Amino acid sequence: MEREVDVIVIGGGPVGENAADRARAAGLEVVLVERELVGGECSYWACIPSKTLLRSAAALRAAQRVDGAKQAVTGRLDVPAVLARRDYWVSDWSDQGGADWLESIGIGLERGHGRLDGVRRVVVERTGGGEVAYRARHAVIVATGTDPVVPRIDGLAEAAPWTSREATSVTEPPARLVVIGGGVTGVEMATAFAGFGTEVTVLARSGLLSTMEPFAGEAVAKGLRELGASVRLDAAVERVERTASGEVVVTLAGGETVTADEVLIATGRRPRSERLGLETVGLEPGGWVSVDDTMLATGAAGNDSQPWLYAAGDLNHRALLTHQGKYQARAVGDLVAARALGTPEQTSPWGAHVATADHSAVPQVVFAEPEAVSVGLTAAEAERDGREVRVADVSFSSVSGAGILADGYEGQARLVVDTERGTVVGATFVGQDVAELLQSATIAIVGEVPIDRLWHAVPAFPTMSEVWLRLLEALGRRTAADASAPADSEASDADDSGARSDDAEAAA
Ligand SMILES: Cc1cc2nc3c(=O)[nH]c(=O)nc-3n(C[C@H](O)[C@H](O)[C@H](O)COP(=O)(O)OP(=O)(O)OC[C@H]3O[C@@H](n4cnc5c(N)ncnc54)[C@H](O)[C@@H]3O)c2cc1C
Ligand SMILES: NC(=O)c1ccc[n+]([C@@H]2O[C@H](COP(=O)([O-])OP(=O)(O)OC[C@H]3O[C@@H](n4cnc5c(N)ncnc54)[C@H](O)[C@@H]3O)[C@@H](O)[C@H]2O)c1
């Protein structure tokens, strides 16, 4: 027999939980299907444990950079205490809190593996055994996340490599760790283990953090080396072998070897969609589920006549970040409810039921040493996008708040400005504690705040935010003499060529 509910959500990670919550808040009957832990990868094996593993050493380093405090901090990192703090934050891998929360807001939890079985139908292979079939009156939202990619490298799979799960749930840090991959997971885990005293080698096939401005990866490579890690750029791994004594030997192109106790693979993610029944609704099993800005799955059977299948979070491959997935979840949960209740849809750009920011304003914080954070476009991306851009680069050495935060503060900031529109389209900050600067840049981009208006957003002295003033100064501010000069002398200003006249102050 089939049970009928309004909405079925498959996958109870941060994204599925939020989508279910929004649909339920509008009064719909919702069932959420989860086969492991309510809270998903983020809560138990990704964001939360990785950040707690990083935080204690970062706090220690911060204290060591302030004269007066550093004399008081003479001990070493207490690794068992760090791991215990991690255990607290992951609730010892119990999802009772998440399950209780679902119950408290009236969402049904179905524990088991969910798969689509034709239009609006979901079959759950229950964790305790047996199957149950559901029919959705209004929508099915799939939010099943991703698994790590294990690259095809000779001997790697047989060498029992670590993935992010083993790294984030570590109970005894190894003496030596090789990290394959120079993306976000690779550098964060390398930073965490270097902080524990593990001898870390990072093998990156190009530079580090290659999706960010180049200076971000360069600063993080320098920071990792200062923590004692070895960072090998342009390194191609040819073979991995687990020896009889339990060591891992990684052979690079050219024959050089690196020996360690564990090898961590941090080479990207693949969609968890192999046993999701996608083929029963005309989609490709094992692939990413493409969606439009409302998260409606492109090409799914029945979606054209009456929208019903949506995909949110990592699974749709728009932005593999918890906060962005939750943003999509709020949009789709509200849209599904609006469609069910027949209330107005808000699907034009920046409406409540679309994830417009995914295209132009995705913030990301890399919790490395130093922190590297970015939002929007890099200068190269903006140029590829056909925009006239100006770039402002400043060092945090010109910011009093940074010098007070840490002795000898090192950091860098970049704004990318679209000169035609006179607005910020990208920002990158690198340095200690820059994470909290990111939201100001995100607001400037999403709000399309004109540069000349940003001069009126006065950063308090002496805070890190004063970097904004330095960035505006680097973009330039006309003097009274400039204002009275003939128009052609203004136009001769070196990088002013792309600026509209009404944006002259912004671009000058
Ligand atoms: C090491 C690491 C650190 C990270 N740190 C950050 C960070 O600091 N900040 C950040 O924003 N992002 C971070 N991310 C990315 C973040 O973890 C993901 O973007 C986020 O978890 C995606 O959420 P999701 O709900 O889409 O998927 P998931 O969190 O993967 O949740 C999907 C859920 O679906 C369940 N599921 C899957 N298939 C089925 C099925 N067929 N039936 C029933 N249930 C199913 C799974 O068990 C899981 O609980 C990190 C990732 C990694 C690997
Ligand atoms: N702080 C955060 O927000 C945070 C932290 C961790 C992960 N995440 C998210 O999770 C996702 C996955 O992160 P990730 O670091 O696993 O993936 P990624 O795609 O960000 O980086 C993978 C890296 O591995 C490299 N690579 C791929 N195959 C390789 C090979 N055979 N040999 C050597 N290098 C290889 C790639 O060139 C790339 O640099 C990302 O999208 C990221 O945004 C976010």
Automatic annotation (TrEMBL):
Region of interest (Disordered), residue spans: 480-508
Residue spans of biased composition, Basic and acidic residues class: 497-508
An example Gene Ontology molecular-function term: flavin adenine dinucleotide binding
One BP annotation, GO: 2-oxoglutarate metabolic process
Binding site for NAD(+): G181, G182, G183, V184, T185, G186, V187, E188, G268
Organism, as annotated: Agromyces cerinus subsp. cerinus
Disulfide-bonded cysteines: C42-C47
Keyword tags: FAD, Flavoprotein, NAD, Nucleotide-binding
Cofactor(s) listed: FAD
SUPFAM superfamilies xrefs: FAD/NAD(P)-binding domain (SSF51905), FAD/NAD-linked reductases, dimerisation (C-terminal) domain (SSF55424)
Domain of life from the UniProt record: Bacteria
Cofactor binding mode and count: Binds 1 FAD per subunit.
Homology family: Belongs to the class-I pyridine nucleotide-disulfide oxidoreductase family.
Residues annotated for FAD binding in this entry: K51, G114, D314
Listed PANTHER family: DIHYDROLIPOYL DEHYDROGENASE, MITOCHONDRIAL (PTHR22912:SF151), DISULFIDE OXIDOREDUCTASE (PTHR22912)
Domain FAD/NAD(P)-binding: start-end pairs: 6-322
UniProt name for this protein: Dihydrolipoamide dehydrogenase
All residue ranges annotated as the Pyridine nucleotide-disulphide oxidoreductase dimerisation domain in the record: 362-468
